[in-house]
Structures are given as structure tokens and as C-alpha cells.
Specification:
Length: 363
């Protein structure tokens, strides 16, 4: 399972009955410019209860910046301490009420979401504990929920001086989930009277927990960060019009074609990406057939050996490959999707090579 800043979650297939799994799966995710890390969790799937975490690998933005061409290699799994994990978000309204002589700090705890699942039933029994100026107040307990709603209001006498922080802590009877501190009148806190959705951070002083000993294994990864700047649509219109005009006019002897210049100026590493973008562009314009016809006419006009025709990493071959992927993928999902989904849901042993099927698995 992969998590990107605890928001987007991507799950791989399950490899059964092995300590040396091979996935060979590739994912592309769109990250916010302000992302901090990508966490990859190795899980042990359990059909009867919630899945157990074996370990995790955390890929930080700084690590990816040090490898502009991508990182490839083995990374040791680290132990996952629940007390160090972000535990979701809590919805608050913090304001100062009253006159200058008797001001009070009012905090309305509305709801929370994506809390840690700490019970055997896959949920938690969360409540909120508020600390301010030496006093503690608690909300009611919401049973068996990771998306609790409280809508409860708490008030404290405003401390003087006002540097005292309000600490809002999500917890349960067995677990200190996370906390959030608000400098009530200083900069950086919630605006007075406005709803706020702060991210919970690890609770301070967690109770001791059992630790796993020894190596947790390693995970082989290939990771690459690519920054893309997308301009407004009107900035690309002159180029789109020029490309469409060239494709509509077809190949002309003695004319230098723009697609030929793209083929000659792009490197082998980025030619696949250029081909994908061009195929998607002309699919949207309804000119993908004319685009591929022009590419192959220009390819046939080049002096080359017949045995190597269409076997090079040219823009024509990459564009045809990208076209087949874009148009054929929905067909494969429609035809093969239902039986593959059923195989995973039934969790049965599946082997396509008859020579590898053991006698005990035949029945």
C-alpha cells in the first residue's frame, strides 16, 4: 500500500504464501507541489481481521531531489510505530468571546475524519481531550467510528499573558491518537470564529509498546519525481493549431515537417512521453488516424534497412505503441477485468503454468 502525505492511497495486488514477493507493478500519481513524502507500506493481508503492517519505506522529497533521474535500488523496511503516524484531521472552531474584563476561550469540536483504526472491529472509540491553562475537559465517546461527530463546545478562562496554547487531543480508552496545538491569539492559529481543519500530529509521551526485533526485509523500488508546469489552455493553442494544420495537409515533398523536428530533437528517454502526449492530443482533435498516417509516411521515406523498419525507438513506433495502449486498455479492462477481480475476491490459488501446480493444489 502506498500513501502520499496520508491522502491518496494506492494498493497493489496480494502475493500469497511467500516471503519474497514480486509485484512488477507501476503507478503514476499526481502530487501537490507542497508534498513532503511518499510512504510505502508492506502489509500482511488477513481475511478474518484487519491487515497487519510488516514495515514501511518513506521516500522524502529531499531524497527524490537528490536523484533527478530517479532512484532505483533496495530500501530496508523500517518499523511502523503507530504513535509516530499522523492520525487524521479534526474539525474545530476556536474563538475568543466576552468583554475585555472577562474574556473566555471557546472551542467547538465538530468532527474528525480518517482516524486510526485501533480496535479489532476495524474502528475506534474516539473522544477529544482539551488542555488549556492547566485545565482539562473531555468530550463524549463515539463508539466504533473513525469519522466521529461531536459538535460540542468547551470554554476556558483566557490566560494572561496570551502565550498559553490550546491543546486538542484525539484519543480512545486504549490509544492516544494525536494532538493539535493552537496559539490562541498569536500568529499561526485558527482565525477567531472560523471553522478550521488542522492535521493531527503524534501525541506527546505515548505509552510504551512492544517492538519487533530483527530485520523486517527490504523493498526494491524505482522512483522518479518529475516536475510539470501546466500553463493555461490558451497558451498551447498556437502549437495545437500548427500541429493540426500540418497533419491535415499530409506529407509534402521538400517540406520540413514539425513532427520530424520533434523526432530528431527528442532523446530516446523522453520520446515515449512525447508520443503519449501527441496521441492524446490528436485523439481529442479527432485526427489520430491522420497523425499516424503522416508519421509512417515520413518513416517510410527515410533511407533504412528493410529488416530494421519500425523496429527503432522512433516517434512513429512509440506513437503506435501509445495509441494501442490508450485505445486497447479500456477493452482489456472490460474483457479481463471481471474474471481477474473475481480471482482476487475469492483468494484462490491460481497458477497459469501446469508444470508448477503441485499435486495438493489440484483438488
Amino acid at each position: 500500500i502506498g500513501k502520499i502525505d496520508e491522502e491518496a492511497i494506492i494498493r497493489t495486488a496480494t502475493v500469497w504464501k511467500t516471503l519474497s514477493p514480486f509485484w512488477g507493478e507501476e503507478y503514476e500519481v499526481h502530487l501537490q507541489p507542497t508534498f513532503h513524502s511518499v510512504s510505502i507500506y508492506v502489509m500482511d493481508e488477513d481475511a478474518l481481521s484487519r491487515d497487519d503492517v510488516i514495515g514501511k519505506v518513506c521516500i522524502t522529497r529531499d531524497m527524490l531531489a537528490e536523484h533527478p533521474k530517479g532512484y532505483s535500488g533496495w530500501v530496508s523496511l523500517s518499523e511502523v510505530d503507530p504513535d509516530e503516524e499522523v492520525q487524521g484531521e479534526i474539525h474545530l472552531r476556536v474563538e475568543v468571546v466576552g468583554s475585555q474584563g472577562s474574556r473566555r476561550l471557546r472551542c467547538t469540536v465538530l468532527e474528525a475524519r480518517d482516524l486510526a483504526r485501533k480496535s479489532r472491529n476495524g474502528a475506534s472509540d474516539p473522544f477529544v481531550r482539551l488542555h488549556y491553562n492547566g485545565k482539562v475537559q473531555e468530550s463524549t465517546v463515539v463508539k466504533k467510528s473513525c469519522y466521529p461527530r461531536w459538535n460540542e463546545t468547551f470554554e476556558f478562562e483566557l490566560a494572561e499573558p496570551t502565550e498559553e496554547k490550546l491543546c486538542v487531543e484525539e484519543a480512545s480508552s486504549l490509544w492516544r491518537g494525536g494532538s493539535w496545538k493552537c496559539p490562541c491569539l498569536g500568529g499561526g492559529g485558527a482565525s477567531a470564529g472560523q471553522p478550521h481543519l488542522p492535521r493531527l500530529s503524534p501525541a506527546v509521551g505515548p505509552p510504551p509498546a512492544w517492538r519487533r526485533r530483527g530485520s523486517l526485509g527490504s523493498l526494491q523500488l524505482q522512483v522518479m519525481l518529475r516536475d510539470e508546469t501546466v500553463l493555461p489552455n490558451h497558451c498551447y493553442q498556437p502549437l495545437v493549431q500548427l500541429l493540426c494544420q500540418e497533419v491535415k495537409s499530409g506529407r509534402q515533398d521538400g517540406q520540413v515537417h514539425l513532427v520530424t523536428l520533434l523526432d530528431e530533437t527528442t532523446t530516446a528517454e523522453c520520446r515515449q512521453e512525447v508520443a503519449i502526449n501527441l496521441v492524446k492530443l490528436f485523439l481529442g482533435q479527432g485526427l489520430v488516424k491522420e497523425f499516424l498516417d503522416l508519421l509512417f509516411e515520413l518513416e517510410l521515406a527515410k533511407p533504412c534497412e528493410p529488416n530494421t523498419l519500425f523496429r527503432s525507438n522512433s516517434l512513429a513506433s512509440k506513437s503506435m505503441e501509445s495509441f494501442l495502449k490508450v485505445t486497447g486498455m479500456p477493452y482489456l479492462h472490460t474483457v479481463l477485468g471481471p474474471p481477474i477481480t473475481r480471482v482476487f475476491e475469492e483468494k484462490k490459488y491460481v497458477e497459469l503454468d501446469p508444470s508448477k501446480v503441485e499435486i495438493k493444489d489440484v483438488g
